């Protein structure tokens, strides 16, 4: 499946674009401006977040926004321009959970091509068990593995990340996981 965002006009001059393979040796159809020859590339969005843990518990946030309102998720969101993936993950954790963390290693990289996204989750040690959730979160809760509301997890990327987190923790060694969700 090929995704195409609705680019209709050139961001440089405003002329209606056409979709074609550019004349520069490219092999993919792109939005090309017939007036100024600007090629508009459409790239995946990055979602960044954390797996915040406190002892044997993981912090989850109950969503107060769509999609998946009322479902549980890890603190995560779209990366902003001008920030690193780590900075974005820390910002999202603070915004959504009001959690103070110490960022650890990159944990999962999940490609979701059907929606044009790449999700990156870091392990994060919580520095406190006090939280101040932002407007995107109905509530936060620390869950032990057996308490996780698996049927109420908002996204497959979160489920895949949590499953790998608990499996790695049981092994006593955390790896970096690359997952394709097709």
Q: pLDDT below 50 for ≥5 consecutive residues: which ranges?
A: none
Largest sheet, in brief, is:
8 strands, mixed
Q: What fraction of the residues are assigned to beta strands by DSSP? A: 35-45%
Radius of gyration equals 19 Å
Structural class: alpha+beta
User: Per the principal axes of the C-alpha atoms, what is the gross shape?
Assistant: elongated
Number of strands: 11
Distance between the termini: 10 Å
Summarize the structure.
The protein is of the alpha+beta class and 182 residues long. The chain contains 2 helices and 11 strands; from the N terminus they run βββββββαβββαβ. The protein has helices spanning 85-97, 156-171; strands spanning 18-20, 30-32, 39-40, 45-54, 57-63, 72-73, 76-78, 101-112, 117-126, 137-144, 177-180.
Set down the secondary structure blueprint.
Blueprint: E1 18-20, E2 30-32, E3 39-40, E4 45-54, E5 57-63, E6 72-73, E7 76-78, H1 85-97, E8 101-112, E9 117-126, E10 137-144, H2 156-171, E11 177-180
Parallel strand pairs: 4-9, 8-11
Antiparallel strand pairs: 1-2, 2-3, 4-5, 4-7, 5-6, 5-10, 8-9
Name the features.
182 residues; alpha+beta; 8-stranded mixed sheet; 3-stranded antiparallel sheet; elongated
Describe, in plain words, how this protein is organized in 3D:
β5 and β6 (72-73) form a beta hairpin. The model has no long low-confidence stretch (mean pLDDT 96). This protein has 182 residues and is an alpha+beta fold. The protein is built from 2 helices and 11 strands.
